[in-house]
Amino acid sequence: MKKLRVTVEGKAYEVTVEILDQGPEGAPFNPQGVAGAPAPAPIVSAPIVSASVSAPVSAAPAAAAAPAGPGSVVSQLAGKIVAINVKEGDAVKEGDVLLSVEAMKMNTYINAPRAGTVKKINVAMGDAVNEGQSLIELE
Amino acid sequence: MPISAAAVDKLRKKREVALNGGGKDKLEERRKKGLMTARDRLDNLYDANTFQERGLHATHNCTGFGMLDKVLPADGVVTGTGYVAGQSVAAFSQDFTVAGGSLGNIHAKKIVNLMDHALKAGMPIIGFMDSGGARIQEGVGSLSGYGQVFFHNVLASGVVPQIAVIAGPCAGGAAYSPALTDFQIMIKKQANMFICGPDVIKAATGQTCTMEEVGSAAAHATISGNIHFVAENDTHAIQIVKQLLTYLPANNLVDPPHKLPPTLSLTKHKSMDALVPEDPKAPLDMQAVIGKLFDPNTFLEVQRDFAKNLIIGFARLKGMVVAIIANQPMVKAGTLDIDASDKAARFIRFANCFNIPIITLVDVPGFLPGLAQERGGIIRHGAKMLFAYSAATVPKITMIIRKAYGGAYLAMCSKDLGADYVFAWPTAEIAVMGAEGAVKVLYRKEITAAADPKAKEAELIADYREKFASPYQAASKALIDDVIEPSETRAALAMALRSLLSKRETRPPKKHGNIPL
User: Fold this and answer.
1) Largest CA distance in chain B
2) Phi/psi of residue A42, each to 5°?
3) Domain B5-245 CATH class label
């Protein structure tokens, strides 16, 4: 029996290891016959305790992002605002391109889902936005 | 001696009662509401006078709960075979006017008998689902009925095409039979489908939600991805069934209904030269490419409202039936994400089951980066595309239009996954990663050591783009068979496909592969 201390991400664990494949005289099994060869390291599976397992994943963007409501036009994907084609008070038709989000070196156009008036623009040029984030409120 | 008049009379009376289902008044009530009856649906589906019914005189075998004296005409489901545009098709249609279309033992047996027949004869199966669910009076007998239907759905899968029309309620276990078929068409308003409805969700978890959110055609078409087509009403649903059938073979041993012209026209289509936007960041509209590349008005889009960053559907190319898988750069930059991968993989496998050649149109910047994607398992979902393409032995032709980067390039039916032909337009960019990223990795030292690092980086990026963001490096390694002008695409793809219609590829026998699910 051997006692080992295993440290995972700064946390120490005490592990007891029993070496089973030993020769008849208790000598370490050594097929190559090399004197003094170290016994193979035991395979120890340390418990996974890193915070990433339990940390909740928030779909909502971090700071001060407007929540999506019924009149919200949301971003399809995470990216950067590279064009805003409307201003507050503008009347828009269904399918009009309201903004462009750049991601993956491509511009993704955000179209008006229906006709209406632009009530509020929640983002500015160059803003980083997340998937599902409300960009514009339509009325 | 002629048959006795009494015997004939008895039969005719029995027929009349059975044909009226839950009663004339109930049938009329449905029609007034704008709903078809179970038999109306079959009458509309089949060519006139071609429907041959089986099991008209069936009824339930339940004796408990006051059921002994009750007759349930045809046991609540009309089953039989007939012809749709001259093609043999089997169909069943649940009758909501008979005990709410509930599924009992005999009801299930009729469906199973029909499926057995369709399997033996090798014909598609269409089901109209309109049922309150299990017939509770029959207890576990009705549950067993569902189990038998599921089992036969699986037996038939990959042997004959199966199409389900969700035409009314389809709740709980009943929803799993359509889910096992190849295509589900759901009718707006009158239909809903769910495992647990709002009431059960509320009772079990306290969560409040509406039927619209849980089980509507809109929810299934856009969010859950459970269904493939949304129909406005019964007539529209039947139109979709008929249109779908025009692309499908009767079974897995025959070719799809290609209509081969005796000669292939190789005319150039100049309008295709204008499809790629000049600005490299402006997205290309793949719908426009599809509209011009395939025979006019032959494109039937499948799952139009789900994972719109990838387009799938059937079309004809100079008369040949094809299955299309195409990136849509207008949505999410055309990236592959979890839903798009699932959508593509299942469609590829359907096409392979039924000998339908696959045309892949590529404009993909990569897999969608993001925490939700990684945690949602984009690795195992994306792997489905690799698996489905590699396992498919039907003709596979790939057309690289613009971007084809990294793993997503491979996943869109690259040469290495067994594409029989890979074409590229001169605008294609095939590389491991974009120029900016690649230069940072390759020339980190050179950039930091330069007198003007920014200028050096810009120079290296331009140089990399010139060398690698083109189809010619891939073509030099024989990973692309030819670089063609957009205007030549229709002719090139049609010629390639004609030569591949006789393709035979055999793999080592096995039960089935182990696709990551």
Assistant:
1) 113
2) -65, 145
3) alpha beta
Give the C-alpha separation, B127 to B153, whole Å. Answer: 11
Dihedral (CA of B33, B35, B36, B38) sign:
negative
Name the minimum distance, in Å, from the CA of A78 to any CA of chain B: 8
User: Which residues are B185's β-sheet partners?
Assistant: B165, B229
Q: Looking at chain B, which residue has its C-alpha nearest residue A59?
A: B372
pLDDT average, residue stretch A89-103: 94
Structural domain spans, chain A: 72-128
Cβ–Cβ contact A62 with B under 8 A:
no
Partner residue facing B281 (CB), from A77, A78, A106: A106
* Contact (CB<8Å) A77/B436: no
Enumerate the β-bridge partners of residue A76: none
Residue B423 in 3-state DSSP?
A: strand
What is residue B149's DSSP assignment?
A: H
Burial annotation A113-138 (CB, 10 A radius, 16+ → b, else e): eeebebeebbbeeebebbbbbbbbbb
Per-residue model confidence (pLDDT) at position B316 = 98
Matching CATH topology for B5-245 and B270-434+470-500? yes
CA of B222, closest CA in chain A: separation in Å?
14
Query: What CATH class has B270-434+470-500?
Result: alpha beta
Judged by DSSP in three states, B421 sits in: strand
Instruction: Give catalytic residues of B, as residue numbers.
Output: 172-173, 407-408
pLDDT above 70 for A14: yes
CATH number corresponding to A72-128: 2.40.50.100
- Whether residue A7 is predicted with pLDDT greater than 60 in this model: the reply is yes
E strand or H helix at A123: none
Of B366, B371, B372, the CB nearest to A104: B366
- Cα angle B253, B259, B260 (rounded to 5 degrees) comes to 105
Q: What percent of chain A has pLDDT over 70?
A: 63
> Contact A131/B281, CB-based, under 8 Å?
no
Residue in B417, B373, B424 with CA at minimum distance from that of residue B392: B417
Of B333, B375, B436, the CB nearest to A103: B333
Q: How many beta-carbon contacts under 8 Å exist across A and B?
A: 45
**A68–chain B nearest CA distance, Å:** 16
The residue ranges of every structural domain in chain B are: 5-245, 270-434+470-500, 435-468
B110: CB partners within 8 A, 6+ apart: B54, B55, B58, B74, B75, B77, B79, B92
pLDDT of the residue at A59: 44
Round to whole Å and give the CA distance between B488 and B476.
21
Q: Give the model's pLDDT for residue B464.
A: 87
Helix (H) or strand (E) holding B252: none
Predicted TM-score (pTM) of this structure: 0.88
| ipTM, two decimals | 0.77
CB atoms within 10 A of CB B210: 10
User: CB under 8 Å to A58, separation ≥6 — which residues?
Assistant: none
CB contact under 8 A, B331 and A76: yes
The sign of the CA dihedral B341, B344, B348, B349 is: positive
Contacts of B366 in chain A (CB under 8 A): 104
How would you classify the pairing of strands A97-103 and B125-129? Answer: unpaired
Q: Do residues B176 and B166 touch, judged by C-beta distance below 8 A?
A: no
What's the Cα-to-Cα distance from B325 to each of B240, B285, B322, B400, B489, rounded to whole Å?
Answer: 20, 14, 10, 12, 16
Strands B169-171 and B192-194: parallel
Provide the token pair at B310.
């990838």
